[in-house]
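User: We ran a pulldown and think these components assemble together. Before we commit to crystallization trials, I'd like a predicted model of the whole complex to look at. Sequences follow.
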Amino acid sequence: MEQIIQQLINGVSLGSIYALIALGYTMVYGILSLINFAHGEIYMIGAFVGYALTTFLGLGFIPSLLISMLVCSILGMIIEKIAYKPMRNSTRIAILITAISVSLFLQYTMVYFVGPETRTFPQVLESQRLNLFNGNVILDTKNIYIFLITVILMITLQFVVKKTKVGKAMRAVSLDKDAAELMGINVNKIISYTFAMGSALAGAAGVLVGIYYNTINPLMGAGPGLKAFVAAVLGGIGLIPGAVFGGFFLGITETLVSAFGGSVYKDAVAFAILIVILLVKPTGLLGKNLKEKV
Amino acid sequence: MSVLKVSNLSRAFGGIKAVTDVSLNVEEGEIIGLIGPNGAGKTTFFNLLTGIYTPTEGEIEYDLNSKVTSKDFKPHKMTGFGVARTFQNIRLFQNMTVLENVLIGFHNGMNYSVASSFFRLPSFYKEEEETHDKALKLLEKFNLIDKKDAFARNLAYGDQRRLEIARALAANPKLLLLDEPAAGMNPKETAELTELIKWIRKTFDLTIILIEHDMSLVMNICERLFVFDYGHLIASGLPDEIQKNERVIKAYLGEDAN
Amino acid sequence: MKGFNKKSIIAIAALIAAYIIGQVLISNGIIDSYIQLNMIIIGINIILAVSLNLITGFTGQFTLGHAAFMAIGAYVSAIFTAKLGQPFIVAIIAAGIAAAVAGIIIGIPTLRLKGDYLAIATLGFGEIVRILALNIDYIGGAIGFNDIPQYTNWTWLFVITVITVLLISNFIKSYHGRACISIRENEIAAEAMGINTTYYKVLAFAIGAFFAGIAGALYANYFYFIKPDSFGFMKSIDILVIVVFGGMGSITGSIVGAIVLSVISSFLQSIPDLRMVIYAVILFLIMVYKPTGLMGKSEFKIFKKGVKGNVSSKG
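Assistant: Here's a predicted model for the assembly, 867 residues in total across the polymer chains.
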């Protein structure tokens, strides 16, 4: 029993990070139907920015987190302008390969400049271990911070999407770009904002991962990036609650599989669940089924 | 002899009934018109007839090549049962040539194996040549022979409509379903289409059911009409009778029409 | 025999000449082992690209797991040659069949999915195959499979590449192949014209997987050593890039694409630091400036032989 609780705690932390990254995938997919494979690299760069700010400038946790989010949102907008905008009318496969080329470019540019080795992320959050259940379950304060920050960011995002004018415009663009444009919405601007917001969340996830695992490297984006993408699809790609649900679902499943089945198979299990869910409900657990009209 | 028997057919999507309790018969060799306001359930009815949707209730029975009921329907089995169709929004194979589009229509008539296609066994040459000859003859009849190597997407609109009909006929159907064949055509093209449909029935000896909004075409060639409204079959009969039918007039013009 | 018209004879003569020239140059040492390595890579990439083109370019099924079939073929061939001591030809056929069976097993459920969803499911399948291979000790796990006999040479490579290209293009120019293309063009219309779309999607998938498996066998029995990470997601992407670069739905495009991209990647080996950065930029530029690929959907005229020409010239 204690072990399950312990794994749930770890799962929620991992799930928070997946959920934050998954949100960016889902927002971009919702608005452009594009699987933004470069998203995992934005998260990696977020981690490196956080690392640089804390190590070299000695900034604290909150300022590093905010600056890292800002840098990532700018990067996201630049990527969209340079790489995706010229491709907007291309085939799906061409756009996908473009996204992969951006991803490779960011990965290996980073490798070129900072080297491929793993670095240790400084301990900017004081970590206190709380012993529960007579010391059988350890709750690190880092887990609490990560969860809280994730929840705050998600509530903020939900507020922006549901209550603000920009959010309303985003939802309109995702339903019908042409109609939104005719209604006076600046579609290009809204797409930029979407990339900015998604990338900011990925940047936050990068810093949080640095704190949680203590290590970062230029190729760290590929694995969690793919996993977060799986999370987005599990919940229903294009849906914000779907990404959150999928993130936590995947995080918890993974930690439970590692604890009870063997960690070597945890990724295989994640992908197997993905395939099963796609077969049973292709639009994801929270998605609606759409059929082509004849 | 009745080739199509529909009994108490219903189809619901969620709570919405798109087709409700429709029963009708179609006799061999008839040209039937299916009319009704937009959203009346005509295309849903076609999709039920071609196995794209399965009935929620009721049954469809064909007696064309053999007796089959809607329990056995699958979209790809319909040509084998003797039923071919066209679509409201033209569905050609855009990046294939005119000839290749028609060749696809002959798919069910071809038998050589996958191995024969890999190794080009004699059966490959024999069947391909026979089918090409048949396809070219069909294109000749439809005045599309000059364009046989053009991509379907590059055809003029009227030609695309005709090619879609030619492709359906290549499947050698006994019942042809045309979903709004005159949509988007000007009066001259519609007049030509009217002649084409008459000619098709005579030449290919088949039964035709068509959905159409263009009343000049419907009244000109259809021997019997079925009128749909809100998923119900509200009237059926000769074109003259339908024109005078009060329920039909109401359905088209609203309650206050008279 | 109608199969042997003038054009076919010229083509066959050209192929034999190409083979002999290659063989002579290799045995004289004019083609050194480095160039030979690249020729092997090009041949394997042609097989992979043409087989993926059948699935993605012609049948329109967007998959991201093609490297998994290559992996299955590579491991099966390695087991047959290194562990069971079977002759190469047996290993090659076993590799193809194993990959095709995997293709059928994964294809029947997943090919109901469309577009991006199919791509994601096949990506997941590819990752599962890789992770399983990492954890099976019999085939070396993460350390890799060592001491595979080196059977692949110019003759095997040339013959198998030519056979693959020939069989797949024959298939495409038959009514079975037309059925596959019609699914890409309009699945609903294809079905209405009597095409069993599930059957043809699975068939295309199985054929594509079969040849990818054979490519895997050639790969394993050339490099002595294979490891699961050589067949990951990025390998699938590499194959897809060749297909898109050459032109979706063009066999000649896949061949030219495989040659050009293999040569570029071989040149990039000399600048290891910036290799991937430049590769990424090249990919990006190709997608922006030539998104339909070098050949579009068309073929070189000399390759346009066979039924279509024969019949129309007669009629």
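Chain C touches chain A at residues 56, 62, 109-110, 112-117, 119-121, 123-125, 127-128, 131-132, 134-135, 188, 233, 237, 240-241, 244, 248, 273-277, 279-281, 283-284, 287-288, 291 (CB under 8 Å). That may be worth checking against your pulldown data before setting up trials.

User: Thanks, that helps.
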